[in-house]
Amino acid sequence: MSFFRENIEAMEGYVPGEQPRGGKFIKLNTNECPYPCSPKVRAAIGHAVQAGLQKYPDPGAFAFRARAAELFADDVPGISPEWILCGNGSDDILTIALRAFVGEGDTVRFANPSYSLYKTLAEIQGCQTDVVDYDADWKLGEAFTAAGARLAFLANPNSPSGTALPVEEVRRIADALPCPLLVDEAYVDFAEDNCLRLVAKNERVMVSRSLSKSYALAGLRFGFVVAQPSLIAGLAKVKDSYNCDALSIGGATAAIDDRGWFETMRTAVLATRLRMTDELRGLGFDCLDSQANFVWCNHPEHDPVTLYERLKAEGILVRNMACPGGWSGVRITVGSDEQIDALLERLRSIC
Ligand SMILES: *Cc1c(COP(=O)(O)O)cnc(C)c1O
């Protein structure tokens, strides 16, 4: 006999990308930034420690929201801290949104292939899923905007494809959807455009962001969502009171303040992505043009599992993605130039 709810008993649980404890792997499997975070982030965390940790943090993470509101003032006219909610990573934001909008037995919609956490969160919540396949051009058809869902998640740029729908397309989806749309922009700092400007025009649009990838802070756990104040107020009822701690609020605020560091890292990743994509194609890989900090590819003669295993044996971790519907490939994070050179060298002997 199990004491667990039926849906918990039946589910498998999310499997994060491998985080090896020992050994010296070149880690290109979980889309972390290969470079360190800004020194100002480390200083801010140090200050938070020195101030003492005996008091609870600010439940509203106001310092961060005030700075973020300034940063996004051009994209979202009228934005104030009331338009922003912070989370313990943007995964926390996804959990909060699902709990806030989708009851047990209700339906959440998302695309396939996409971020596999959406399905796991739905299983925990005990809700139904309506999964809409991308078409051959990486677009989403009518089914994505049909009635019947209480919430839709859209990773844009998407993972593992690295593709992004144009903002006009997302606007059309948001306007046609009768329910809230959460645009998961975890990778958007590596993309050509973003959907923040849709928030001011559509009261059902939420845009979530992460500091894990483009700000090199996967270890800190900080993300946030931007939406109109009425939605933010409802989401705030669902979050844990102290979902962000004093160290992460201090570090994240310093991170978005250091524009110079951010731009330097982003420029480096974009340059490496371009070179890596060209060289992979030169080795015979089919690669989609990526709008993120990873490249999703397939080799006509080497299946993804074999590639993953052979690279792992050589000390390089990539992500072997097998998604429902037969989508498969290897997803390779854009590492530093040295890491990518090492990858390409191994691949030259394999392919
Ligand atoms: C990495 C990722 C996230 C979560 O990021 P955290 O801020 O580290 O929780 C959310 N969505 C997608 C699509 C991601 O790839």
List the helices and strands and how they pair.
Blueprint: H1 6-10, E1 26-28, H2 39-50, H3 62-71, E2 84-87, H4 90-101, E3 107-112, H5 117-125, E4 128-133, E5 151-155, H6 167-176, E6 181-184, H7 196-201, E7 205-210, E8 223-226, H8 229-238, H9 246-257, H10 259-282, E9 286-287, E10 294-298, H11 304-313, E11 316-323, E12 327-333, H12 337-350
Parallel strand pairs: 1-11, 3-4, 3-5, 5-6, 6-7
Antiparallel strand pairs: 2-8, 7-8, 9-10, 10-12, 11-12
Helix pairs in contact: 2-9, 3-9, 4-5, 4-8
The structure holds pyridoxal-5'-phosphate.
Account of the protein in words:
- The protein has about 350 residues and is of the alpha/beta class.
- The protein has twelve helices and twelve strands.
- The strands form two sheets. A seven-stranded mixed sheet has the order 2-8-7-6-5-3-4, sandwiched between helices.
- α3 runs parallel beside α9, α4 packs across α5 and α4 (about 90-100) packs across α8.
- The protein is globular.
- It binds pyridoxal-5'-phosphate.
- The site of pyridoxal-5'-phosphate has 12 residues, from α4.
